[in-house]
Design brief:
alpha/beta; binds cytidine-5'-monophosphate; Rossmann fold; 2 domains; 408 residues
Length: 408
């Protein structure tokens, strides 16, 4: 994903530096070339050797402290994104006032001048974070186009609670990817549905399916990092909410329909990745159905159809909105998907053959075909769901470009 992408990682003297070791590892795993720059204070927490081993590159230190003089201008120029994690109050203050008294602040000032993408992950005690100086500096840095990730709220290393925790490495990585790939969905409102629905029979039993929700969650995560404002309406899953999105939890197809209809008028794009149950028990029993009381299980599961949400939605005034559906099939994938594309009046349908073990439900990879409204088919190779999400969203960007900007 970040293959051969040079990333500069500035490290300052905050306890959260231990998370930056993990960030370095994640960046390397994505194929990025990582170049670390450490301040003198950061070295009071960890040795450069840790970052040298993880990044497999020489760590840049303040001039005079290294045997090999470091060409900071060349490196600053080559970096696609300049990340500082952790960014201490001190670093923010220096950067906001143009102080360039060490290698890192010199490089940052240089990068700021050439408008390179800079991402800061502030980390400090909650009261320091709330100080007017820090708040003023952050406002200033934002105004200059510097990107910020976090801080999160929670328990801090000093024992206090509040804002100031450095964002988790996965979240910082996501933001880096967003900056590398561009914010081509900025200002777009995207509604993604994900996961299974659960249709109750009685207080104990439900009718559901094997959807893990992974595809929808990846779509939400990738759309958010590409700048979209994302609402994710999710059935029951084991997944954590992606950062920076609005998560709405639902259980049944009926609840999903209600939420989707409520949110649809305020969206530009609806991606219906949820595996909505097509049937539900006809009757909900408020008490557990005991086997001793049941004469036979035969008539216990009388079913009725759930509403076809996407079909209903497709009848609403379109006003340039993009509608995307999924077709999980176990046979005749393409003809079945094409029929759904037409019946639901979609701009794109993502068809996958869920009978293949490495594709579809419960796994992290997927092999899909993208079928557009004119029935053109693009067959994608087997890819991680994150990359499938990127491809689907590339199509969304293209479709949106062909339309006048839809009114939300
Ligand atoms: O017809 P089928 O259920 O296979 O269609 C799949 C697509 O339609 C998916 O995008 C799914 O989220 C959506 N769907 C729906 N309402 C249903 C069933 C499926 O919107 N009741």
């Amino acid at each position: 994903m970040l293959k051969d992408t040079p990333i500069l990682l500035g490290l300052t003297g905050g306890i959260a530096i231990y998370k930056s070791a993990e960030l370095t590892r994640l960046l390397r795993r994505e194929g990025a070339e990582v170049y670390c720059v450490m301040t003198r204070n950061s070295r009071r927490f960890v040795q450069p050797l840790l970052f040298e081993a993880l990044s497999q590159n020489r760590v840049a230190l303040d001039e005079g402290e290294v045997a090999h003089p470091f060409d900071h201008i060349r490196l600053s120029e080559k970096a696609r994104v300049f990340v500082v994690a952790p960014a201490t109050a001190n670093l923010l203050g220096k950067l906001a006032s143009g102080v360039a008294d060490n290698l890192l602040t010199t490089m940052l000032t240089y990068a700021l001048g050439r408008r390179a993408p800079i991402l800061l992950a502030p980390a400090m005690n909650a009261n320091m974070y709330k100080s007017p100086a820090v708040q003023e500096n952050l406002r200033r840095l934002k105004k200059w186009g510097i990107h910020l990730v976090g801080p999160a709220s929670g328990e801090l290393a000093c024992g206090d609670e509040g804002p100031g925790r450095m964002s988790e490495p996965e979240e910082i990585l996501d933001r880096i990817k967003g900056l590398v790939h561009g914010l081509d969905l900025a200002g777009r409102k995207i509604l993604v549905t994900a996961g299974p629905t659960r249709e109750p029979l009685d207080p104990i039993r439900v009718l559901s399916n094997r959807s893990s929700g992974k595809m929808g969650y990846e779509l939400a995560r990738v759309a958010a990092r590409r700048g979209a404002r994302v609402t994710l309406v999710s059935g029951p899953t084991q997944l954590a909410a992606p950062p920076g999105i609005n998560l709405v939890r639902i259980e049944t197809a009926e609840e999903l329909k209600k939420k989707t209809e409520e949110l649809y008028p305020q969206t530009n794009v609806l991606i219906m990745a949820a595996a909505v149950a097509d049937f539900r028990p006809r009757r909900f029993h408020s008490q557990k159905q005991k086997k001793t009381e049941m004469k036979s299980a035969d008539n216990l599961l009388e079913l009725s159809s759930t509403p076809d949400i996407l079909k209903e939605i497709s009848k609403y005034p379109r006003r340039g909105r993009v509608l995307i559906g999924f077709a999980a099939e176990s046979e005749n994938t393409i003809p079945n998907a094409k029929a759904k594309l037409q019946a639901k009046n979609l701009d794109l349908i993502v068809a996958n053959d869920v009978s293949r073990p490495e594709s579809g439900f419960e796994v992290s990879t997927n092999q899909v075909c993208l079928i557009s409204a004119d029935e053109k088919i693009e067959e994608l190779p087997l890819l991680p769901k994150e990359e499938v999400a990127e491809k689907i969203l590339d199509r969304v960007v293209k479709i949106l470009e062909t339309r006048r900007r839809p009114k939300p």
